[in-house]
Design brief:
By secondary structure, the protein is mostly beta strands. It contains three helices and eight strands. The two termini are 29 Å apart. The structure holds a DNA duplex (13 and 13 nucleotides).
Length: 173
DNA sequence: CGCCAGATTGACT
DNA sequence: GTCAATCTGGCGG
């Protein structure tokens, strides 16, 4: 897992993030959780993307591959990984995690940030060389299902939500 | 500076 | 199933 991973198309990154383990170090404790649900977001041509607006979120989506993008909606923090390539604004939203060594609800984008203690403090930090949050390599050969994205009012024609089949920790079946 | 929509959640009928 | 709390970013709706 290195920087070039986040220089691929958002859909590919969203698919391949499934099965990766997100590690969050708090003090001397490491909370580990497996990524089981993601969504891909594109730039200008994506009506649901924050890159359409001309503010800080768009700018963040143009930062280095592996940059964390954390933004608030309805009093919840949502975690994204930026995967810019060739100046394109793209990101992948993490929608659900399977807790591996702790108890806590992670079956929704707002819930998982609460459980993993991720907030605006992490906005614009980079995943690589980070001492508080990082990713471990993915499992292979997962069975992946796809659907339209959840909660967006204007979606693309393409199904851009990906999740591990039969996993009970996804936000919706 | 005020207004509003929104990649949500939880409580309630 | 419905609905409102809650707050941030973007923009002048």
């Amino acid at each position: 897992m290195d920087k070039s991973f986040f220089m691929q198309d958002a859909e590919k990154v969203a698919r391949e993030l499934l099965g990766c383990v997100l590690v969050r170090k708090i003090g001397n404790r490491e909370k580990k959780a497996r990524i089981v649900e993601t969504e891909a977001y594109y730039g200008e041509r994506d009506p649901a993307s924050r890159a359409r607006q001309n503010g800080d979120l768009r700018k963040t989506m143009l930062m280095k591959p592996g940059t964390l993008l954390v933004y608030g909606v309805h009093n919840n923090w949502l975690l994204n990984f930026v995967n810019s390539r060739e100046g394109k604004a793209e990101a992948v939203l993490i929608r659900a995690l399977e807790p591996l060594n702790f108890e806590g609800k992670c079956n929704g984008p707002g819930l998982l940030t609460k459980s993993m203690l991720i907030d605006k403090r992490f906005h614009k930090q980079n995943l690589f060389g980070n001492k508080e949050i990082w990713l471990k390599k993915r499992e292979k050969d997962l069975v992946i299902e796809r659907s339209f994205r959840i909660g967006v009012s204007k979606d693309l024609k393409k199904k851009l939500r990906f999740y591990i089949k039969n996993n009970e920790f996804v936000s919706r079946k």
